[in-house]
Amino acid sequence: MLETHTDRGHHVEDRLTHDDLLWLTTVSGDGTPQPSLIWFYWDGETVLIYSQPNTPKLHNIATNPRVSLNFQANPDGEDVVILAGIAVVDTSALPSNLHDAYRQKYARGTAQIGMTPESLAAEFSVAIRVTPTKVRVL
Predict the structure, then answer these.
(1) Rounded CA separation 114/104 (Å)
(2) Torsion angle, CA of 71/73/74/79, rounded to 10 degrees?
(3) 3 or 66: which carries more pLDDT confidence?
(4) Beta-carbon count within 10 A of 132 CB
(5) Beta bridge partners of residue 89, listed in sequence order
(6) Is this model's pTM higher than 0.85 or not?
(7) pLDDT > 90: what percent of the chain?
(8) How far is Cα 46 from Cα 43, in angstroms, rounded to an integer?
(9) For residue 59, with 0-12 CB atoms within 10 Å meaning exposed, 13-18 middle and 19 or more buried, which class applies?
(10) How many of the other CB atoms lie within 10 Å of CB of 77?
(11) Which residues are within 8 A (CB) of 128 and not within 5 positions of it... i.e. 6 or more apart?
């Protein structure tokens, strides 16, 4: 999906690899977009997200798996990257405390919010995997 041999594709891959935050937007049953700020891990093909159970985003994904992922723009409102994709709950994913790369990426953030890797994994126990289908760079 990402053409990493192009400048644009390389830039998107770099953001997926190094940025810490994304906006996940799902759509509620009445068609209202529902953005959520998330932590994520890019494995080269999919975006892995951990969610608390019983959240609106999980209900929305169950009824409409089409989502978007948006990066923060730079301070000038530029460098906008939007990924459209299909989201599924991934029951085969490791808990976040056993996912070495995810745990390392968010070690500082986990400590800043007063959690341990184990308590984070217990609270955010539902893995969501998004497969990007389209990329827009503005």
Answers:
(1) 16
(2) 90
(3) 66
(4) 20
(5) 128
(6) yes
(7) 84
(8) 6
(9) middle
(10) 8
(11) 24, 48, 49, 50, 51, 57, 58, 61, 87, 88, 89, 90
